[in-house]
Amino acid sequence: MRRTRDNRIGDVGELQLKVLDLLGELGEATVHGLLERFAEDARPRYTTVLTVLQGLERKGLVRHRTIDRTHVFEPTGQARQVRPKLLRDVVAKVFGGSPAALVAALLDVEEVTPEVVAELQALLAAHPEPGEGDGS
How many domains does the chain have? Predict the structure, then answer.
């Protein structure tokens, strides 16, 4: 399952995000445990997943402990910050820092059904106004 630079967002690649997602769901896992969660036709090699985990560990996003010579990996607290950081980077670099420009672009390229509009309205209604609830 070869990935190119085009499949990378910032400095975290598509497979790294998938592995982080799986670890987040499972809480902890071995390489074999992670491999079982991939669809058979999209399953990377053992060594590929191990290399991804080692890279994530170098970035401080996962850690491991050894049980009977088997590495058991788990996400660190920093792993939960990957998507928010990537999204902030995209908003800053691609949309000039404007979340509204991001939403407008999404609306231009995605099918917007009445259900999607209702979901977006509910999300906005549930989101506190700037300055509310943040102690300012």
Answer: 2
